[in-house]
Each structure stands twice: as C-alpha cells, then as structure tokens.
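Input record, target 12 of the design panel.
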C-alpha cells in the first residue's frame, strides 16, 4: 500500500514556474499511468503559459482564488473548482487573491518537464 503525506514530500519548481509536491506517480509509488501533485502559486504570481502535447490535466483548487486561461477563454476560479485541461491546450493560472493559491494537479500520463512546452517569454 502506497500512502504519501504532503508534509513529507519535497517541493520543486516545474518548467512552468509552479512550486509542486508530487504525491503519487511512477517515480515514488505503484502508480504507472498518472500523477497527483499539489501546486502552489504565491500571492501575485502566475504560471508561464504552456501546454502539454500528450498530457491531460485536472486542476482542483483547494485554497485561494485565481484566474485561469485556457486557449484564450478566461474564468475566475476559487476553492472547490475543478478545471479540465485537455492535452495540447495552452493554459495559464494567476493567483489573484491575498493568500497562496493551492491546487491539486492530476496528470495522465504522469507529469514530465519534457512534455511541457512554454509559449511565453
């Protein structure tokens, strides 16, 4: 049985600039076809706009508020929102609130820097 606690997972910065803690993926568990991580975006911060040629994602907001853009459509997001991001779609997330924006990121297949294409400077 694989059980991981968020407090025990080391943080690292992804290619898009997010701080993440990978909870479950092939790198640290029996999971082979997806990954689950918590991402954090500081107050006033944002990810770089990017897309994943192969990977689809689900973002689930657990703390804070933000603004999500997917292929030109912009929506405000808050705690409890689940956001579907199909493979190949450009996306960017801003923290628009007074606290750290936290979200769970589910990726299938598992997140890889090599499957992240940055589209802004």
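The sequence produced for target 12 reads:
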């Amino acid at each position: 049985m694989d059980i991981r606690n968020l407090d025990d997972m080391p943080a690292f910065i992804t290619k898009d600039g997010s701080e993440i803690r990978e909870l479950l993926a092939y790198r640290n568990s029996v999971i082979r076809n997806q990954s689950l991580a918590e991402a954090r975006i500081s107050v006033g911060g944002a990810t770089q706009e990017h897309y994943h040629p192969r990977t689809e994602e689900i973002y689930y907001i657990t703390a804070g508020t933000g603004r999500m853009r997917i292929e030109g459509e912009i929506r405000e997001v808050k705690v409890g929102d689940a956001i579907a991001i199909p493979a190949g779609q450009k996306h960017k997330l801003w923290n628009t609130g007074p606290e750290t924006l936290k979200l769970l990121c589910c990726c299938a297949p598992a997140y890889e820097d090599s499957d992240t294409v940055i589209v802004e400077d």
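The domain at 11-114 is CATH 2.60.120.10 (Jelly Rolls).
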